[in-house]
Amino acid sequence: MVGYEGHRGWINYLAVRPDCQRQGHARQIMEEAERLLREAGCPKINLQIRSTNTEVIAFYKSIGYRVDDVVSMSKRLGADEPYQVEPL
Which pTM was predicted? Predict the structure, then answer.
């Protein structure tokens, strides 16, 4: 899912089926997402990855993404099951 709210582009929920990974599919999807955002005038793309997902972090670094010095915050509004994240 790719979105652009006029300030930053966002990429959410990129996934490749496990038996299809390491064949270039994610790279192709990202190239197309970047193309679409560039055409829309988007100056920067943001995405969020769980800090424990080191393989995915390595993938994004390999295609030119870097870790920003920001804190991601959230607030759950529903009654879904809470998850544990280590505090800063």
Answer: 0.80
